[in-house]
Amino acid sequence: MKTFDAMKTILPFILGFLSLGLMAQQASFNAATGTVQGRQYVGGLIGGASGTASSVTHSYAKGNVVAQSYAGGLIGSNAGTISESYAVGVPSASSFLGGFAGNNTGDISSSYWDTERSAQLTSAGGIGRNTDEMTWPYAPNAYVGWDFSNIWVADEVPFSNDGYPVLRQNKVHQLQLRAYPPDGGTVAGGGYYLSNQMVRLVATAKPEFNLLGWYLGTQLITADPSLDWVVSADQTLTARFVRRPTSVLINEEAEGIPLVRLYPNPVREFLWIDIQSAKEDLRVIRIYSALGYVLKEERPAIRGELRYNLNVQGLQSGIYFVHLQFETMQITKKIVVK
Question: Model pTM?
């Protein structure tokens, strides 16, 4: 048997997520130790996660839970995703009671509760392990796949957390994402992350918009929709979109549609425009700014195979749109000028 010093169970930090409800939010790197009491939807860390997009990761609760229904050691009711978390406290309720979760319609993975200390052998989610398995030295069937190099620390003798794992005192930053204008598209990947953690961000433009790129303040980071970003501080990144210049959106693989290739892209001085299988005259070539202003216009009036050289030396570095106007169709493509 393992023995613990009850006077050493104070955590270095306690974040206030007790009995809160989550809807399409992320709760990560949280710990709670106090007793929580309520009528229903009560958990040691979170009362309920009602949104399917909500998530809880790298968190734990050690306090007792008292409720009439929907009570769990970590969460009362879950409809989102939970991973790499554990619960130790004693939950009590007359219905929908579980050592880890009182009710679960979502996904709970790689998460555990102490069946002995909680006095609960069942749970709506999570994996039950006894005290000896969940405390140092940890059993091979507990905390499987957990990152004890960057996120968790084993609570070894002398115990400070009753032998259960504790979160490393690394800085956690909030990465907020914005789409501008809000109706221009969607962004994904924001949330709370450890300092220097890399995260994949994705911006998706709506059909009538083009993506200008990811910006930190006024600085363009990349024009690509996907961005691997290292989180180093509380930051807000903005995906900027611009409404497409008036044009007809077409499928360039359809029969009768010319094949258009622009290179090099990014470009410094001269842009080559290759057009194949054009059955109509190319009447106008225009270059638009990101805000939709016409900056350059040429009228080649050529059909069939075409290789056209366009001088862009007078343009400042940034994102532009090349607009090709044929007799009955129009094609718009994005370029980046270095």
Answer: 0.56
